[in-house]
Amino acid sequence: MGKHSTGVSTNKLVFTSLTACLIMLGTLLFRIPVPMTQGYVHLGDAMIYIGVLLLGRKHGSFAAALGSAMGDILGGFAFWAPWSFIIKYAMAFVAGSLIERTSRIISMTAGGLVMCAGYLIAERVMYGSWALAAVGLPWNIGQFAVGIAVALSAQPLFRFIPEK
Predict the structure, then answer these.
(1) What does the alpha-carbon distance between residue 50 and residue 62 come to, in Å, rounded to a whole number?
(2) Per residue in 8-25, pLDDT tens?
(3) CB-based burial label for 15 (10 Å; 0-12, 13-18, 19+)
(4) Residue 115's closest CA among 33, 46, 54?
(5) DSSP string of the chain?
(6) How far apart are CA 23 and CA 104, in angstroms?
(7) Could you give the dihedral angle defined by the CA atoms of residues 11, 67, 32 and 112, in that order, rounded to the nearest 10 degrees?
(8) Which pLDDT does position 136 carry in this prediction?
(9) Environment class of 160 (CB within 10 Å of its CB; exposed 0-12, middle 13-18, buried 19+)
(10) 8 Å CB contact between 75 and 31
(11) Which residues contact 72 (CB under 8 A, 6 or more apart)?
(12) pLDDT tens digits, 95-132
C-alpha cells in the first residue's frame, strides 16, 4: 500500500483507525457505573494498552485520544470528551514512551497513573472540590489495573510483538 503526503502508510492509518474504534467500543460496551459519581469504569483502557503495544507510541496515542473522546460523545458524556482526548493521549504516550525502555507492566502502570492524575485534576475543575474528585480515584486505579491484566492476557495473541 502507498504512503500519504505525511509519510504514514495506508496500513498504519487503517490500523490506527481500527484501534480507535476498538477503544471506543471498549469504552461504550463494557461499562460499570461508579457509585457516588456520574461516571463509569470500562474496558477502554485495555484497548488503549493493546493499541500502544501494536501501534507504538505515536499512533497508539492518537488512537487512544480519538477512541476515548468518541466513546464519551456517543455514550452521552460529551462534556468529558475534551478531557478524555488529552488525558488518554497522555496516558498512551507515557506508556508508549516507557515501553521502549522498561517492562510492559511498569510502562502501563505509569500511563495509568498519568490517567488517574489527569482525571483527578479534571474532576476537581468540573466538581469544584478535591474531595469529590478523589471519590473516583480508586475506580480509575482499578480500571487501569484491569486494563493491564486484560492487555497482558491478550499478549499471546500478538506473538509478533517483540519483548521490551
Answers:
(1) 13
(2) 688 888 999 999 999 999
(3) middle
(4) 46
(5) --B-TTS-BHHHHHHHHHHHHHHHHHHHHS-EEPTTSS-EE-SHHHHHHHHHHHHHHHHHHHHHHHHHHHHHHHTT-GGGHHHHHHHHHHHHHHHHHHHTTS-HHHHHHHHHHHHHHHHHHHHHHHHS-HHHHHHTHHHHHHHHHHHHHHHHHHGGGGTTSPP-
(6) 19
(7) 90
(8) 86
(9) exposed
(10) yes
(11) 27, 78, 80, 81, 84
(12) 999 998 999 999 999 999 999 999 999 999 998 999 98
d(CA 129, CA 106) in angstroms, rounded, equals 30
Residue 61, classified by CB atoms within 10 Å of its CB into exposed (0-12), middle (13-18) or buried (19+), is: buried
Q: Is the pLDDT of residue 151 over 90?
A: yes
Q: pLDDT digits over 60-87, tens only?
A: 999 999 999 999 999 999 999 999 999 9
Kindly give, in sequence order, each residue whose CB lies less than 8 Å from that of residue 18, ignoring residues fewer than 6 positions away: none
CA-nearest of 163, 51, 70, 162 to 111 is: 51
CA torsion angle for 91, 55, 25, 4 (degrees, to 10)?
110
pTM here is: 0.89
